[in-house]
Amino acid sequence: MMKKALIVLAAAASVSALFAADTPKTNLGKLYEDDFLIGVALPQQVTSERDKARAELAASQFNCLTPENLMKWDGMEPQEGQFNWGPADDLVKYAQKNKIKIHGHTLIWHSQTPRWVFEDKDGKPASRDLVLKRMKNHIETIMKRYKGKIDAWDVVNEAFNEDGTLRNSQWKRIVGDDFIEKAFEFARAADPSAKLVYNDYNADTPSKRDGIAKLAKELKKKGLIDAVGMQGHYLIDFPSSKQIEEAIKVYADAGVMVMVTEMDIDVLPRSNGRVTADISQTQEYQEKNNPYTKGLPDDVSKKLADRYVDIFKVFLKHSKVMYSVTVWGLDDGTSWLNGFPVRGRTNHPLLFDRQLKAKPCYDALVNLKQPNAARSAKTGKMP
Ligand code: 9MR
């Protein structure tokens, strides 16, 4: 018994020693606080503080957080009128304790919405009125419970096709094209203090961007939207930082703020070269497309750091319209990109590695804001 307790203690001590030794002294959120919020997406394991090491690391680095999964419809209201508050309440508690703002994700999405939402009591397609009633109840119930506690909400997620037309989702088919406006109306009424966001991937692709910007302009005229969320699932060499910059300008011209809501940079090859965050677009595993199972070689690590810096330079240049930049996950080990678009690969898209150690791309973002401090760290002297 005693021996077992000692082993457990020793293991816990070595994990925390590793964590303590490698925790950067800098707080990324604080470093960028005059520019925009720096956010992170976290799973329930972390926001419930069961994963203490990650909960501490996240709180020491970020001033905004997004629930990676737990606030999606199937998590929040799996059965009609039965809301699952526990995990969301824990998240709010963790965020408040650590003075971290919350970016709610997501109220209306074509994915992970239970079937009952679109069916009547006989299992037949529900009417527009019934679906709207359910939409209103879902948005109101959640937003009112967390009124004033959730800073921004992804009200509608991923409603556009790549060509700038509306995705043919059940929301569109049953309610009609105005489902987006309706969702924003319900959200505005439920918590007028929350920033309301339209969120999508490939939001820099010109055709899609223009469709989103048109919608943003219309909603803005009616006072219903505050920001476009560009998810920011980037590849190591696509899209260009110029294309990202163009999109920021287009959204700013439409009169809304820009949030980068889900940033990561995929360093692995995509066999079909397609950029998407559509989780139905998977590809087959091939050994040659999983080259960095033993860690990221220095040259690729440097390339990744340069890519983060190039993109952050654009964000800094437009910081007047940029509200937040959120990375989609804390560390490489827990990134969704280990499973997408190919299952079972070892990806390295984030700022912290699998041991929760800050990577060169993290250091590069610190250097970008604080070149003197970074130099002095090398010599061991204060600037
Ligand atoms: O990172 C999320 C992953 O853990 C989930 O399995 C997946 C399906 O719900 O969703 C991932 O997050 C997505 C986000 O909610 C919306 N934009 C694309 C993100 C990556 O797929």
- What's the arrangement of strands in the largest beta sheet? 1-2-3-5-6-7-9-10
Report the β-strand fraction as a percent range.
Answer: 5-15%
Largest sheet: 8 strands, parallel, barrel
Order of helices and strands: HHEHHEHHEEHEHHEHEEHEHEHH
Please give a structural write-up:
By secondary structure, the protein is an alpha/beta fold. The chain has one domain (4-369): Alpha-Beta Barrel (TIM Barrel). 42% of the residues lie in helices and 13% in strands. The chain contains 14 helices and ten strands. The chain has an eight-stranded parallel beta barrel with strand order 1-2-3-5-6-7-9-10, surrounded by five helices. Strand 6 (195-200), helix 10 and strand 7 (227-230) form a beta-alpha-beta unit. Helix 10 packs parallel to helix 11, helix 11 runs parallel beside helix 12 (298-317) and helix 12 packs parallel to helix 13. The longest helix is centred in the N-terminal third of the chain and has 21 residues, at 2-22. The radius of gyration is 21 Å and the shape is globular. Mean pLDDT is 92; it is low at 5-18 and 378-383. The structure holds ligand 9MR. The site of ligand 9MR has 9 residues, from loops. Ligand 9MR binds at residues 68-69, 112, 201, 231, 262, 277, 279, 336.
